[in-house]
Amino acid sequence: MVLAMLRGCRRLLHKSKTLYTYRIQHQETTISSCYYSVRHHCPTEELRDFGLPNTTWSQNLRNLYNKFMELSKTGGWTRIPSHNTIAHHLEGDPLETGIGKRMFLRNLDSDGLGFEYCMFYNKDERRMVCLFQPGPYLEGPPGYAHGGCIATIIDSTAGAGAVYTCGSVMTANLNITYHKPVPLGSTLFVESHVDKIQGRKVYSSCHIQSYDGVILHAEATALFIKANQ
Ligand SMILES: CCCCC/C=C\C/C=C\C/C=C\C/C=C\CCCC(=O)SCCNC(=O)CCNC(=O)[C@H](O)C(C)(C)COP(=O)(O)OP(=O)(O)OC[C@H]1O[C@@H](n2cnc3c(N)ncnc32)[C@H](O)[C@@H]1OP(=O)(O)O
């Protein structure tokens, strides 16, 4: 009886190990074919500036974009280009592996499904504005954006604001208060400000509002640490 049970366990273990190995191998195949498609199938895609209007942009997003493009003409605001790899943002990416990587916010090939956004920076005011339209793949509660993706867009907006103000930084601390759920497909106005720079510490604040400023969805404070020189 005991022997039969032990044999049963051994068979089960063997089966699950085989399944596990299969999953790993299958994953590796999928991942390496992604790398392949990023590096070799879409060379022009890599150079694309994603911070420009595309057909998935809502009219509200276009209106805000046009408003900031107008503001850019008179000085103050500058549109920040948006690429799908950090290597195209920073010259000489220290982590470049040669097999291709994607920025978390830009890891979908189709427009409009994930993070649809563009950023504008105001150097004098140390402000970064991000115009954001969360796509259907960012769902958390039914019909609304996942809290983690809200944290991501806040970290990226405030992080980019800190990078453009002080150079390379890492997020050390991020505190978010979620006030109102963010509807998928809505147009959001995300704004960050570098409040204080103290040695290597960069203190920023950030909020997310509806495109018309009527609804305050979330507020945050962040601490970034400048890279050691
Ligand atoms: C990344 C570049 C991107 C460039 C993009 C360009 C364009 C932008 C376009 C689109 C936007 C896209 C991206 C936006 C950019 C960035 C957003 C994403 C950022 C991230 O996604 S980033 C990943 C998550 N992040 C981490 O993975 C950090 C893990 N962590 C560490 O790597 C270390 O922990 C570190 C480096 C933080 C510090 O380490 P360290 O050794 O250099 O410094 P040390 O510990 O000595 O601290 C020095 C002083 O800071 C104080 N201090 C430290 N930590 C503190 C804390 N938590 N609270 C309060 N105070 C703190 C100490 O108390 C001391 O203070 P004091 O000087 O007064 O003693």
TrEMBL record:
Keywords: Apoptosis, Cell membrane, Cell projection, Cytoplasm, Fatty acid metabolism, Hydrolase, Lipid metabolism, Membrane, Mitochondrion, Mitochondrion inner membrane, Transit peptide
GO terms of molecular function: hydrolase activity
Top-rank EC class of the record's enzyme: hydrolase
UniProt topology in membrane: Peripheral membrane protein
Single GO BP term: apoptotic process
Subcellular location: Cell projection, Ruffle membrane; Cytoplasm; Mitochondrion inner membrane; Mitochondrion intermembrane space
Domain Thioesterase: 143-213
GO cellular component: mitochondrial inner membrane; mitochondrial intermembrane space; ruffle membrane
Reaction it catalyzes: dodecanoyl-CoA + H2O = dodecanoate + CoA + H(+); tetradecanoyl-CoA + H2O = tetradecanoate + CoA + H(+); hexadecanoyl-CoA + H2O = hexadecanoate + CoA + H(+); (5Z,8Z,11Z,14Z)-eicosatetraenoyl-CoA + H2O = (5Z,8Z,11Z,14Z)-eicosatetraenoate + CoA + H(+)
Chief site of localization: membrane
Domain of life: Eukaryota
Enzyme Commission identifier(s): 3.1.2.2
A Pfam family the protein falls into: 4HBT
Family: Belongs to the THEM4/THEM5 thioesterase family.
Name of the featured protein: Acyl-coenzyme A thioesterase THEM4
UniProt organism field: Engystomops pustulosus (Tungara frog)
